[in-house]
Amino acid sequence: MTPHVLIIQPDLSLAARLQQLILSGADVSISFEDSVQGGLEALQTHTYLDLCVCDIYYPDGDGLALLSAIQDKFPRARLIIVTSSDIKKLDEPPPSFTVLSLPQDTAHFISLCQETLTSLEGCEIPPFRLGAKFRSDRWGDWYQGYDKTLKREVLMVVTHSWATPRESMQFRTAAALMAQAAHPNVQAVYVAGRHQGREFVCHEKWDMPNLTDFAEAGRKIDARLAAQILHTVGSVLMFWNAQQYPHASINPGHVSISPQGVIKVANKVDPTLALTPLRLTDIVTVTAAVRALLLPLVEVPTRLRDLLDTIRDGAQVLLETSMGNITIQLNSVRAPLTAANFLAYVDKKAYDGTIFHHVIPDFVVQGGRFKPEMNKIPTADPIADESSNGLSNTRGTIALTRSKQPNSATSQFVFNLADNLSLNGGLNKPGFAVFGKVIKGLEVIEKMAQVKVTKKGVYHHVPAEPIILLKAYRHELVSIEQVVNEAQAIDLQLTTQHDIALSQKSSVPRHAMSPPSS
Fold first, then answer.
1. Does the N-terminal peptide bond of residue 127 adopt cis geometry, omega within 30 degrees of 0?
2. How does pLDDT run across 391-428, given as a tens digit for each residue?
3. Which residues of 26-61 are buried (b: 16+ CB within 10 A; e: fewer)?
4. Who's near 96: CB < 8 A, 6+ residues apart?
5. Main-chain dihedrals φ then ψ at residue 433, nearest 5 degrees
6. How many angstroms separate the CA atoms of 435 and 383, rounded?
7. Interaxial angle between packed helices 223-242 and 480-506, expressed in degrees from 0 to 180 and rounded to the nearest 10
8. Against a cut of 0.85, is the pTM above it?
9. CA 226, CA 252: separation in Å to the nearest integer?
10. Helix (H, G, I), strand (E, B) or coil at 102
11. What is the Cα–Cα distance from 470 to 322, expressed in whole angstroms?
12. Other C-beta atoms within 10 Å of 264: how many?
C-alpha cells in the first residue's frame, strides 16, 4: 500500500522543495494544493492520508480552520507545519503539532517524513513476520502477518511511531479487553506486546465474505442460514453485554460466513466507548441485510417472516406530552446515524421536560431544544447529514433539523404535518434527515399546531401556553433475548424438517428410483 502525502503550501518554490525532500526518503504518492480552499476540497476527495504538510498562514483563508479540518477528516494522519512565520504570534497556537522552518530544520523534516512513511513490511516481531500493509485506523497500521511458530497467517496491528503515551495505553487496554471478549463466533484477538517502542496486537485472520460482500455479489441465503445469523449475532451481543464489554455497533460488514456455514462476528469491543444497555436497534441493520439476502419471501417460513417483521418494526419511541401520547417508529436501516442520535438523547432523558417551541398548522411542529423558560438543553456533537437517505419529509414523518450549515444537526426535530418536500435533501443540497414516522398520535400533533402562538425573544410561532414533552422513552416490541430464542427455535425446526426430508429420500427403495427396463 503506497503511502499518501498531501502538501498544502502557498509558496510554490517551497512546495517543490518539500516534495523533493519527501521523495528522497520514501516511495510515496504526493498531492499538492496551494490554497486553503484547494486543501479543503482535496480533503473531501481523499479516502486515505498518511502525512499532511502545510503552512499556518495563507493569503486566501484561515490556516487554523484548515488544520482543524485535516484533523477531523484524518485524525491519525501525521501533520507537519512548515512555515517561515512566527508561530508564537498566534493568539491560539495549534497544540501538539510539529512546526518546522526550512532550511534550518531540513534534516529534522526528512527524519520525520521517513519515520512516518517507512513501512514495516518484511520486519520481524518474533514470532511474527510482517507482510503487506493494507490499511490504517485510529490505532495504527494493519499488516498481513505470519506466525512462524504456529505456521499460520494472522493480521497484525502496530501503533504509529508518533503515538502518545496516552494513546499507547488506550491501545493496550483495548487489546486486553478484546482478548477477554473471546467467543466461538467472534474473531479472536491474542498476543499483544511492544516492539521497538511500538505497541502491537495479533488478530485471527478470517478471510470469509461478509453480508455486504454477499449483497454486492448478488448471492442469496436460505431460511436456515438467516435464522442462524440472527441467533449468532444476538448471542454475541448478549455475551458482551453480560460481561459488560462496551462495543461499537455491529453492521452487515462485520458478519462473515465460511463456505461450511461457520458464522463469525468482528471483534468490535472498544473500552473508549460508553457501556450501553442491550437494545433491539443493535441488530436492526443486520436483520435488514439478512432480509434483503433471503430467497423470495414467499418461500420463507411464516415464523421467520414474522420475526423479521417484528425486528424491523420493533424499534419505537413513546413520547408522553401534556396534550397526549405519540408513538414513533424509527427507521434505523435508512437513517442509522440519525436514529441512533435521537435514541441517545432519549436514553439520557434529555428531552424530558422540554417544550414544542415552533408550531405552524399544515406545516410542522418542532421540539427538542428548549425548556419552558426558553433555556437551551445541552447537546452532543453534531452528526453527519443523512437527508439523502431516500426517506421523504412527507406527512406524519419525523426529521432532525439543522442550521444553514450541513452536518450541523443535534437534538431538534420536527413532525411534518404536510408533504414538505422542500425539506428533502438532494445532490449538493442538504435537507432535514427523516428517521422515522408517527404510528400513533398524529391527531395529538395536529392539535398542537392549532394552539394560540406568540413571540418569545427572537423566536416566532411559540405556543402561548407551553406544550411540554413530559417523558420520552424506548418502547421495543421484542428484546434481543427473545430474538435469539426465536431464531434458535426456527433453526431447530428447519433443521429437523431438512433431516426428515433427507431420511425419507434415503429410505426409498433403489428399484423404486430406477426407470423400468426396456
1. yes
2. 999 999 999 999 888 889 999 999 999 999 999 987 77
3. bebebbbbbbbebbbebbeeeeebbbbbbbbbbeeb
4. none
5. -80, 115
6. 13
7. 140
8. no
9. 13
10. coil
11. 7
12. 22
320-474 has which CATH code? Answer: 2.40.100.10
User: Looking at the DSSP assignment, which residues form a beta bridge with residue 440?
Assistant: 327
What are 462's strand-pairing partners?
454
- The pLDDT of residue 67: 87
Per the listing, cell 394552539 goes with 451
Instruction: Quote the CA–CA distance of 271 and 278 in Å, as a whole number.
Output: 16
CA angle in degrees (0–180, nearest 5) for 52-44-387: 145
Domain boundaries, the chain: 4-117, 126-204, 220-262+276-314+477-518, 320-474
Q: From CA 457, how far away is CA 464, in angstroms rounded?
A: 13
Residue in this structure with the C-alpha cell 478471510, named with its chain if needed: 207
pLDDT in tens, 274-316: 888 888 888 988 999 999 999 886 678 999 999 999 998 888 9
Fold held by 126-204: Phosphorylase Kinase; domain 1 (3.30.200)
Architecture of domain 4-117: 3-Layer(aba) Sandwich (3.40)
CB of 240 within 8 A of CB of 279? no
